[in-house]
From TrEMBL:
Record protein name field: DUF4138 domain-containing protein
InterPro entries recorded: Conjug_transposon_TraN
Keywords: Signal
Pfam families reported in the protein's UniProt record: DUF4138 (PF13595)
Taxonomic source organism: Christiangramia antarctica
Length: 276
């Protein structure tokens, strides 16, 4: 009897110790902005513990991210299960002013798995070639921007039924994300030759001239090669962050392959220096 009591006491002590050493991270949200959570695997299930927190995700087609919103009230918790069974748990709190809108959650944050993982599967996973973390980050964040569908204003130019628009410019970490749309309102398909972003500088002096410096994109997301008649394409250009003085501006050049429906768009320093 004493041995049974002793074992039971040891188990309770071990469980209590595990509970106190596991501190859940806190995610803040409010009712005016979407807080995006990007997971290492597609979300299969997401549950909040209180009605004043809402976690939305694609229930029909599994995706890597979900959106969290909150109304004023007591703190609660968020439980998310990925497609591979990884379980993530967080404390969620309402906060009127948010300093962080995007959370990229690594697999190491998982508190466990809903089913036992075989050693063979772990070895197989570790032997597979891993996707570059930075590229994965760009891919997920660009997808989020395209789904958000937010616009900074009417920044567009057109030529013979082809409309080039910059829908948004977003700053994140050390990069600028240009959300771009090409719309083909003509009766001919549009074959894209190139889309370049350059910085144009006005040279001072007696002989005034313009000098352009090409900005190579770090990553292109959903970049089209053809836009069919009466269709449009939306994509994202990722560029290393830069700023412009009053005498400089950004130039976006759209060039048609084997055609003359080219467009040049000027972006003032106001848009570049004050991104979303």
């Amino acid at each position: 009897m004493r041995a049974t009591i002793l074992i039971f006491a040891i188990l309770i002590s071990a469980f209590a110790k595990a509970q106190t050493t596991t501190v859940l991270d806190t995610i803040y949200a409010n009712d005016t902005k979407n807080v995006a959570l990007f997971f290492p695997e597609p979300i299969r299930q997401g549950i909040t513990g209180s009605d004043n927190f809402v976690f939305t995700y694609n229930r029909e087609k599994e995706q890597y991210f979900g959106l969290l919103q909150a109304k004023p009230g007591k703190e609660s918790n968020l439980l998310v299960v990925n497609r591979n069974g990884s379980v993530f748990s967080y404390i969620v709190r309402y906060k009127k002013q948010l300093s962080k809108l995007n959370y990229f959650i690594p697999l190491s944050n998982s508190i466990g798995n809903e089913k036992p993982i075989k050693v063979d599967s772990i070895l197989a996973e570790s032997s597979e070639e891993r996707v570059d973390n930075r590229t994965y980050y760009y891919q997920q964040f660009c997808s989020y921007l395209l789904n958000r569908n937010q616009r900074i204003g009417r920044i567009k130019n057109r030529n013979e039924g082809i409309v080039l628009s910059v829908e948004n410019i977003v700053f994140d970490k050390e990069e600028l994300y240009f959300v771009i749309q090409i719309e083909n309102n003509s009766t001919l398909d549009y074959d894209l030759n190139f889309l370049n972003l350059s910085i144009e500088t006005r040279q001072k002096g007696k002989r005034k001239s313009l000098q352009r410096l090409y900005q190579r994109p770090i990553y292109k997301h959903n970049m089209p090669s053809k836009i069919k008649e009466n269709e449009k394409a939306r994509f994202v250009y990722v560029i290393s962050k830069f700023s412009l003085s009053d005498d400089r501006r950004a130039i976006l050049e759209l060039n048609e392959k084997d055609g003359e429906r080219n467009i040049e768009m000027k972006l003032s320093h106001r848009y570049i220096n004050n991104p979303d």
